[in-house]
Input
Amino acid sequence: MELEPIRRRDAAEWSRLRLDNEDWLRPWEPSASQPWDVRHTPAAFRAMRRVLAQRARLGTSLPFAIRVEGRLAGQVTIDNVVRGALRSGYLGYWIDRSVAGRGMASLAVALVCDHAFGEVGLHRVQADIRPENLPSQRLVERLGFRQEGLLRRYLEIDGDWRDHLAYALLAEDLPAGVLARWRERVPR
Ligand SMILES: CC(C)(COP(=O)(O)OP(=O)(O)OC[C@H]1O[C@@H](n2cnc3c(N)ncnc32)[C@H](O)[C@@H]1OP(=O)(O)O)[C@@H](O)C(=O)NCCC(=O)NCCS
Output
């Protein structure tokens, strides 16, 4: 598994992956006025990449592509990064259904959190997850995130306002780092 910047030449692969994974991703994605296929053309990818690259340059987003065995397999992003006394960001991720269940998404999240707490200097990474999304809750709980509350009708997802559970991990929660926590799960 590798984490990389999102590259312009990923457009066709990203479009195919997102179209193939519509049923898998749609229940957890923000509502939008345009249909799924229109939002997932190579041109839509290029527009998204431009915005992410601009936000990354400003330091308000940490966007990564997840590659598994050399192929684009998902994304992990810490977005809405705020500095100053808060030093926090919001975690988002998705992975191709065909590589799910192999620990790759949680490894990607672990590496990005260590980067955020280390080089970037964040103190808190937040993850807001629908109560229905058990795989996602399992992923963050295994990495040491703690549930801090319920956010009522918090985000407009898949056509309606949805409750979310607020999870967070603090820099001091795992002194050995998040990757070390992920490694504890590797079968021996
Ligand atoms: C949420 C999501 C990313 C989780 O993906 P995933 O592949 O299940 O997550 P992981 O990569 O951590 O895999 C977990 C499984 O891998 C295995 N695993 C986890 N860590 C491991 C490790 N260190 N070594 C070996 N295996 C490991 C476990 O067997 C675990 O399966 P289990 O929970 O049944 O025991 C995926 O379901 C997804 O993309 N969903 C749609 C989008 C979405 O919900 N995004 C999040 C919105 S909040």
